[in-house]
């Protein structure tokens, strides 16, 4: 089973990228070469002060500290790791507790993606997703419905990483399979999310008609969460706003504005419940980022700049420099320049 990068893995990758030997890094951080070697291999824990020195010596801008674990256990403890290994060997004996551990592993990886981007994680995520679909074929009994939902999550995560890395065709294939598994599991939240991610791919490819198609489909998915429906409405408005730029006299601008107003009407309802755990980022301030894209396409530069700025400033610290924020930062620069 592929795993996310440990502190030692990230340290080694950053050191090699910086063109430093272990001995050279050791001199910069007042360590010994054997200590650096043990840290990279996972054979030695790291005090926080030493971890911070390593981060600064590599000019890592917090990327190394982002994966620092003071207990050096990673996102899962040894019992959880052992449970996953046992489950893979004995899929017929899978229970709800084992599925919970698999879900916890994926939740940790999602947050690492916020910090280091898709490329270091892509191969492992694809391997894990295929492992999950293999397990799903072998598991029967009470754990199967729960496992189906978690398998869809793994497939979606791999599809999201593929989309981030601009492997668009593969991303759509993986997301389609994820959506199919979610519908079999009767999980409307996950099915809607798969369609939403396909809308994201369409946005990256500059295909506004497909954007509208997928975001509307996500909105209409039975069982979708209200926070998802707000985002889908806003992003469908983006699609219509981009269509307006291609055909200004078509009425698309009015449709985009109506959808943005509809999204505003849903915000109060969404504020009464937390976002779904599988889409933890769907907060009211996050929605401002996509609203900024819609207003930018409508050439409402003042509103776009305000929404981008508020949305970016409200992101949690571990998402402030995530690779996926680039689109919004560029949008903010464009809106401010055009004001």
Automatic annotation (TrEMBL):
One family name in Pfam for this protein: HTH_31
CDD domains listed in its UniProt record: HTH_XRE
InterPro entries reported in the protein's UniProt record: Cro/C1-type_HTH, Lambda_DNA-bd_dom_sf
Residue span(s) of domain HTH cro/C1-type: 11-65
One GO molecular-function entry: DNA binding
Name of the protein this chain belongs to: Helix-turn-helix domain-containing protein
Biological classification of the source: Bacteria, Bacillati, Actinomycetota, Actinomycetes, Pseudonocardiales
């Amino acid at each position: 089973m592929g795993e996310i990068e440990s502190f030692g893995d990230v340290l080694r990758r950053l050191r090699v990228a910086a063109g430093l030997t272990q001995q050279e890094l050791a001199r910069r951080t007042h360590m010994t070469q054997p200590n650096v070697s043990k840290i990279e291999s996972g054979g030695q824990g790291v005090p926080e002060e030493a971890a911070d020195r390593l981060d600064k010596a590599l000019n890592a801008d917090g990327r190394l500290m982002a994966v620092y674990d003071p207990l050096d256990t990673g996102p899962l403890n040894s019992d959880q790791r052992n449970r996953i290994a046992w489950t893979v060997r004995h899929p017929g004996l899978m229970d709800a507790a084992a599925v919970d551990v698999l879900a916890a592993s994926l939740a940790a990886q999602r947050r690492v993606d916020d910090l280091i981007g898709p490329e270091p994680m892509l191969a492992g995520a694809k391997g894990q997703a295929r492992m999950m679909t293999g397990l799903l074929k072998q598991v029967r009994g009470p754990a199967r419905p729960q496992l189906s939902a978690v398998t869809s999550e793994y497939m979606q995560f791999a599809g999201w990483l593929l989309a981030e890395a601009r492997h668009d065709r593969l991303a759509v294939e993986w997301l389609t399979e994820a959506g199919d598994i979610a519908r079999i599991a009767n999980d409307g939240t996950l099915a809607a999310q798969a369609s939403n991610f396909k809308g994201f791919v369409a946005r990256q490819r500059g295909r506004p008609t497909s954007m509208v198609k997928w975001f509307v489909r996500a909105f209409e998915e039975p069982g979708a969460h209200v926070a998802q429906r707000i985002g889908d409405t806003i992003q469908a408005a983006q699609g219509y706003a981009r269509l307006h730029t291609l055909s200004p006299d078509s009425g698309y601008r009015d449709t985009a504005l109506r959808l943005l107003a509809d999204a505003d009407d849903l915000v109060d309802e969404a504020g009464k419940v937390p976002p779904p755990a599988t889409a933890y980022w769907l907060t009211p301030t996050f929605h401002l980022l996509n609203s900024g894209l819609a207003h930018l396409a409508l050439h409402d530069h003042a509103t776009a700049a305000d929404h981008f700025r508020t949305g970016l400033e409200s992101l949690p610290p571990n998402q402030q420099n995530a690779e996926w924020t680039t689109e919004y930062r560029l949008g903010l620069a464009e809106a401010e320049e055009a004001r």
